[in-house]
Amino acid sequence: MCCSCCGVLQQKIWLFLTATIFLASGLILVISWRDFATNYIYKILPLTAGSFIYDKWVETPIPVYLHIYLFNWTNPEQVRIKRVKPHFEEIGPFVYREEKIKEDVTWNSNKTVSFFGKRTWYFEPELSGAPIDVPITCPHIPSLAAAYTIRNKPRLVKFAFNRVLNNNGGALYATHTAGEWLFDAFYDELLDYAMKLNSSLSPPIDTNEFAWFLNRNGSKEFDGLFTIHTGQGNLRQMGEIKFWNGLNHTGYFDDECGRINGSTSDLWVPNRSHDEYITIYITDTCRIINLMPTAETKVAGIKAIKYETQPDTFDNGQRNTDMKCYCPKELQPNNCPATGATHMGSCTQDLPIFLSHPHFMYADESYAHKINGMEPNYDRHKFFITMEPKLGIPLQVNANVMVSLQVRNDSDITILHDINDFYAPLLTISSKAEVTDELASEIKVIQFIMI
């Protein structure tokens, strides 16, 4: 057809039809490409040997740093003076760079994978707020642990125990360097005696040294054997823990509080809805921790959702009846710890160790009221994970907890008579990580393809 012969109206109609066809084709191509790209990316997301995410899973792709603060007990000799509260001074942080590598990776036929997570820590003096050899005074854990174990024995037994404690290194407190308290360890006379005694009155003692992370550095077995779902065939299960050391229940807490689920924090369910909470299991806490979505934000220019712990995270049933199973059965129903701290005795050989937010943030005022030095600060002490929801990639992590020890008066034990009961803060631990520029660029490219 000769367009030069067409009228002006006909030319406009042909031009409009041609433009419409090209526009429609473009829209179809764009929509089809978006669906194709999204489906392709979700198809390659499941974890397999040599897959898209395998290298980033087997070795943590972003730098992780462990920030540890120790609490220095400044007035241990004055605690028997009436109305004098124990005073604790936070020292640190002592910063360690963490390397985590999956070892003994075994692919199972039921679309799960089993592995050990080997963690190695390297002290970073330039990033730390105090030298590693600074002296720190803390409650003497071996003595107070032994006294707690013997607390309900007949007085005659306690009398004999007290003599042993006084003659073999028993003490209310001890002073060692920060490095010794954390990884390097120190010789302890009482532990040495208990190890040789091998008494039925105390848990088995296999070393005469003490450190919070004794024999942890470079150990692949300590965190246990995890079995998680790879996401093959069901992305909604990707990264979900199926077994820990071959079991789906820790045995540390009753009922649902001991059930293992959630993520190890290395692999997450992608395409998560914005109102959905996330769950992690951390071996050191002996329990799962839920984090609720609190805000939409951006990290390195990437749209993300921030998930945080809540005031009832370390509840024992007072704020949330579903948390009642975190109270030891022997203390139910009326003697559970006040809200805000989880009793960890079931996984610490019956020691009076408690887990909470740092500085007893969100906890009942009774914890901080009996001591001095607690200054909870939301911006410093919040526990959060910020995640890109479509891919399920964490962009920021600040896993922040505090460990404390219950110190109880006991008129039959010399080191504990004439003191008031209190909770002694021992250390706060914060595992911090943030996405690198390189990984952020990769995520942005994938997001652009999926738009």
Polypeptide structure, described:
The strands form three sheets. Strands 1, 2, 3, 8, 9, 10, 11, 12, 13, 14, 15, 16 and 17 form a 13-stranded antiparallel beta sheet that branches. This protein is of the alpha+beta class and 451 residues long. Helix content is 23%, strand content 29%.
Keywords:
23% helix; 451 residues; 13-stranded antiparallel beta sheet; 9 helices; two-stranded antiparallel ribbon
Beta-strand fraction estimate: 25-35%
- Main pleated-sheet profile: 13 strands, antiparallel
The share of residues in helices is 10-25%
What best-fitting shape do the alpha-carbon axes yield? Answer: elongated
Give the distance, in angstroms, between the N- and C-terminal Cα atoms. Answer: 41 Å
Short description, anyone?
23% of the residues lie in helices and 29% in strands.
Map the helices and strands.
Blueprint: H1 8-44, H2 54-58, E1 64-73, E2 88-107, E3 112-123, E4 135-139, H3 141-149, H4 155-167, E5 173-177, H5 178-184, E6 186-187, H6 189-197, E7 209-210, E8 225-229, E9 241-244, E10 278-282, E11 287-299, E12 302-308, E13 341-343, E14 353-356, H7 365-369, H8 378-381, E15 384-388, E16 393-407, E17 422-434, H9 437-450
Antiparallel strand pairs: 1-2, 1-17, 2-3, 3-8, 4-5, 6-7, 8-9, 10-11, 11-12, 12-15, 13-14, 14-16, 15-16, 16-17
